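#onboarding

Welcome to the new folks! Below is a worked example of what a typical request in this channel looks like: someone posts a single protein sequence, and someone else replies with the predicted structure as tokens. Don't worry about understanding the tokens yet, we'll cover that in week two.

Example request:
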Amino acid sequence: MSLSFAAGARDDADAFMGGTELRVLTEHAGALFAGIETWMDRPGSDPVIGAQILRLDSSEGAWVLDHHFDEDLPRGSGRRSTKRNEGVTALRSVTFNVGADGSRLPTSVPVLLAACRDFLGKASVYQRDPAGGFAEHLLADVRGKATVRSFGFHRDQVTGVERAFAGTLPTGIFSGAYQPGKGLVWDSEPELPSPSAGRPMA
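Example response:
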């Protein structure tokens, strides 16, 4: 057994890969993705970072920085981090074979979903595109802290429709389905509201 990754390294493009926890791992499109958390970070000589997603393309390769959530918080926000997104809280690969109308798609559509702790109060899902970018899809905008802590996937045995699910704090569980030409489209209201402000963890 050998060490695969240690925080504080730089990839071949000289991008810094830090963090205090590797919170989640998932396989997607033949690569391994890791979600990095920074909440125990302390000021020092290393660069100040937000949440990061790392990627390993093969067992013989080296980890690289796939995406850095590096948006700064407004000054005076009073948060422990200077970054909007402190850590990756959920990461999952899902594959759609059926669209929102129940029709079978011409080809399977794999989607990598990511989420972060958000100090601007935005419960968002980030969806990776084929070019490697992450598009933000806002599910709920609340005052204070928000997060998506879990993802799920289910195919309805009656309608055949496949839906992705996102468990959010504090608004509840949202779901979305794939629409050709639009991609994964999330419902505007939670399928299961969470008035107790609990965190759906799995």
